[in-house]
Amino acid sequence: MSAAIALADAEGLDALSMRRIAAEMGSGTTSLYRHVANKDELIELMVDAVYAELPLSDPGDGWRAGLADHARNFRALLLRHPWLGQQASRRPALGPNVIRYSDHALGLVDAATGDPTRTVLVVEAVHIYVIGSVARELAELEARRSTGMTEDEWRASVGEYVRQVVDSGRFPHFNRRVLDAEDPEAGAGFEFGLTALLAGIEVTLEGGA
């Protein structure tokens, strides 16, 4: 399993094949099929294996703090295993570690909502936010890999065009963003969005909407 996960981490799920994994393990493909039926089953087992890395948040800190830690841990997991976000967006694998993670997340929120359906909605909202946020981060990393340019280098390459847009005066709000706004530190956007999301959920729960 560790060989398959390491290969997917390095090269993505497209690089994953039973023959390639067997070669990485120094064994024959036939022997691998004695343990898993096909690639889909292997991926389900991989998903469950990496979910075992997730620590459980302390429910004694309150549902918002617990769910915030839960979201940060999930983000870190998705960044360590870039292939996982695509799998987490699909019908869930139901291995023991995935169920453990899901049960803990639901337990963090259950008392605050008093309703199992609303509990599911809250947890799903946070999971969707984390998956989408990480997808944006990974897209930037992929852009660096495919273009060979860092974000700063890319900005320099479009600098002349941006200056022309600013000088035109047609887009005042864009100009303020370019000229006056500071670039947030790494991870600041995620934290801002997470705080806003949880605050909005809290207001919604208190209002009974």
Sequence of secondary-structure elements:
HHHHHHHHHHHH
Overall number of domains: 1
Gyration radius, to the nearest Å? Answer: 21 Å
Query: Biggest β-sheet: count, sense, barrel?
Result: none
Shape: flat
Unreliable runs: none
pLDDT average, as an integer?
A: 90
What name is given to the CATH topology?
Tetracycline Repressor, domain 2
What is the highest CATH level, the class?
Mainly Alpha
How many DSSP-defined strands? 0
Number of helices: 12
Describe this structure in words.
There is one protein chain. This protein has 209 residues and is mainly alpha-helical. The chain has a single domain (55-207), classed as Orthogonal Bundle (Tetracycline Repressor, domain 2), CATH 1.10.357. Helices cover 73% and strands 0% of the residues. It has twelve helices and no strands. The protein has helices at 2-11, 18-25, 29-32, 39-51, 63-80, 84-88, 96-113, 116-147, 151-157, 159-168, 172-179, 188-207. Helix 5 (63-80) runs antiparallel to helix 7 (96-113) and helix 8 packs antiparallel against helix 12. It starts with a helix and ends with a helix. The model has no long low-confidence stretch (mean pLDDT 90).
